[in-house]
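Reminder to self: keep the SMILES exactly as supplied, no canonicalising. Ligand is flavin mononucleotide.
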Amino acid sequence: MFPMLRFQTAGESHGEALVATLSGVPAGLPIDQAFLDRELWRRQQGYGRGGRMRIERDTAHILSGVHHGKTIGSPIAILIQNNDWKNWQESLPVETGDPEKHKAVKSPRPGHADLAGALKYNFPEARYVLERASARETTARVAAGAIAKLLLREMGSEVLSHVIAVGTARLENAEVPWEKIAELATRDAVLLGCADADAEQRMKEQVDLVLRTGDTVGGVFEVVAHNVPPGLGTYVEWDRRLDGLLAMAVMSLQAVKAVEIGEGVSVSATLGSGAQDEIGYNRESAGKLTGFTRSSNHAGGIEGGVSNGQDILVRGYLKPISTLRRPLGSVDFATREPVKAAYERSDVCVVPAAGVAAEAMVAITLAGCALEKFGGDSVVEFKRNYEGYCQQLQKF
Ligand SMILES: Cc1cc2nc3c(=O)[nH]c(=O)nc-3n(C[C@H](O)[C@H](O)[C@H](O)COP(=O)(O)O)c2cc1C
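Structure tokens returned for the bound complex:
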């Protein structure tokens, strides 16, 4: 996505491992491995997860690009082992293996990539489609995103998320202070990642309901990027606009069906006078990058495709999980006769986990924009350029 920061993932849901590669990270960035593992742990949490999350204890094994605790400027490769691989070695081998042991997905599951993927790649059934389309892939994104977060911290920027809705249960006042969101991320027991205990209980009731009925739920998360300097992204070219880049990054996550920047959805029904964020100036702005102030943040920290120094707010809307314990109608790939869709162990609610994966995508996007603006082969150079820009802002 960015010439400066390139990122890819590889791996299948029941393959041996997932891999992330990230190139363009400046040399000299301290890498806290415990932080990477904590981020992976956060992605595994949330009420309504399936049996798979009890099997996996994800840890990031860094293969390259980091030595003596710091990046060396070369591509970083991270491997996350699939513990479940031991149960799949014979049915999903790299070698030809025994075809009798193959676990075919014989009827495509509505809402999954199964049918479209089988048609596209000319597979007679959907096993290989499921394997790669699965959101287990977000594990690799979270590992790469953790490195991006560490780079952003060099500018004092942080990226976290919280849950705004699960099914029909909603957090009424979604203007949650940053300190509260930061506190949520430190918890060692995650229910549904909502900042309000009453709303979270109502969200839990939604999950309990679908657990009873064999159904699933979706919801809404919000990613907040705090302390981001003004000037990331640009209006001068359509494909460098920060809002567009963030929309693509978050929309690329499995099950995200809409992305909202700030109050993008509700302001469409508001008058212009109530939808913008009025500008003020505080002459006593010691320690701040600029003295400009805002009375609100409807825009979610981005105007004209450029960060404006306010918190960046990106919401992701998740459809309900597609795999149902009471499967929907489908067709047998071989006979074309109507059958129930295949069922494979599944989550029923993933809103907090999707929020953590979206944090990674937002962090990678912002780190890419920061590298585009400040450059630097070493962190020292990156920070010097960033600090020079801060001085320029303070003199503005
Ligand atoms: C963190 C996370 C976990 C997910 N877990 C499941 C799951 O266990 N079962 C399922 O059917 N879908 C799950 N999904 C959603 C599917 O991967 C997704 O709906 C499917 O691949 C089709 O892609 P699409 O919804 O983007 O069109 C998960 C999504 C995320 C973000």
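Points to follow up:
The pocket of flavin mononucleotide is lined by residues 50, 111-113, 133-135, 138, 253-255, 319, 321-323, 346-347, 350, 353-354, 357 (CB under 6 Å).
DSSP finds twelve helices and 17 strands in the chain.
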